[in-house]
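re the bet — no i am not wrong, look at it urself. input seq straight from the record:
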Amino acid sequence: MNLLNLIIAEKPDIAKAVSKVLPGNPQWKNGYIEQGNYCITWCYGHLLTLKDPEDYGEQYSRANTPNEKLPIFFNDWGMKVADKGPALLKNGNNAPDKGAQLNTIGMLLKKAASVIIAGDVDDEGQLLVEEVLEWHHYAGPMKRLDTGALNEASLKKAMSNLMDNAPWHIRAVSAKARSVADFALGINGSRFFSNIYHANLSVGRVQTATLGLVVA
């Protein structure tokens, strides 16, 4: 299979919508669609997640991090494959195997001449595709598809007006910075107060503020 363009969607629903506006008959495979000069694949939200402190060594476990060893922070916070999640989703379907889909995308990237990013048009939508490209060390051409509207007329127009991905990259950087900041705050705050009160407490940038509002 010689790919000219690999489209990576944020989720299967976007992949299906894009497929409807491409020429040729879609050929559904395991984790992707072959269609004319295109191949469409998808993520299931974030396929990757930030490493836990314990992934760097037992010295960073909860038991080995009293408050005098906090805060924990890594200058280059690494990534790992996200958990598959529950065995069954709310609709009764089997939960997607994120590791398997990550490998499928990696296989397709080896054959791709270019990539079209089709995440949601927000910071997270940009990051969850770009982090997969970085994971697989993809360094080829990248375009951005406007997925702000998924009706056929809008997607046809967007496909004929693909954007350079470079101006969108800052959105991924912003989302990554926020995720690291949130994660670091949660890990250190949770361990700090758990150590003080000898209980398994959870602190989060959003959840703690929300809880405070409810209590107030």
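see?? The two ends are 60 Å apart (CA to CA). told u. also Strands lie at 5-9, 27-28, 32-35, 38-42, 48-50, 79-81, 115-118, 142-144, 163-164. so pay up
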